[in-house]
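INTERNAL TRANSFER SHEET
From: sequence group
To: structure group
Subject: 2-(R)-hydroxypropyl-CoM dehydrogenase

Please process the attached sequence and return the structure record in the designated field. Keep the field labels unchanged so the import script can parse them.
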Amino acid sequence: MGASFESKRVHGAAVVTGAGSGIGRAVSVALSVAGVSTLYITDINAEGLEATQSIIASLNLPSSPTITLVLGDISSSDFVAELFNQIPCLDYAVNCAGVLGSNKPTAEVSLEEFDKLNSINYRGLWMCVKEELKLMLRNDVKPYKGFTLSEEEAKIRGQRGSIVNIASQLGIVGKTQAAIYTASKAAVLSLTRSDSIDYSKPPHHIRINSICPGVIATPMTTSESGEVSSRLRSAISIAPMDRMGLPSEIADTAVWLCSGESSFVTGSGVVVDGGYIIN
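Return from structure group:
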């Protein structure tokens, strides 16, 4: 006889950084729809966070999560400490906060530009992962709550938590005039791989994965000035699907990586790019 199971894909508490727009907002919505009961969302943009909360409330879900908005900048160690001091327990984390940086080759990039980008894309993400791991290590190993043929199978597929880091297709391949950005995303992938070696195995049972989005239709890539979108036009045409991806397509991948449905996936960089890196 199979073990009992629930239809919800995720349970418990989640935190999403960069939740005020784009991928972070879509992930926050998707986790709410998938079943989280408690959701912490953070961003530097107060209006964006409030809009994300309003969107979730407008869905009239059968069981909406309790949402806590935490305004701040993840490049600040003081803010990261403040954020995670508000979270008593944590089951899932999706680290979406990031910036594109300037369109320059290395010799033209200032130290200030380098530090600003890496303080968010790599250092800020690392500070968040560190605190997320500390919280998840306090959890019991929870059995998989989807369908299984036995209770033993549900136990084997259990986890204390799951962390998803948003990297980029450009963490895998290079791009002209984008060296510091591509390096920051390669660092996220490397961090993900090494952390998964340390924390996925018993007794920890915390899975850590990355998503490598292609060009996604977000405020960063569709700015009114047209400057960023023109930079990305050639990248869009390189991908066989010949279109921008949608934030919801990244969000669906993030929910899958959080959930027990991906219970044997860790240390991966799941590429969601319309085929860009294969061409």
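Handover comment: The radius of gyration is 18 Å. DSSP finds eight helices and seven strands in the chain.
Transfer complete.
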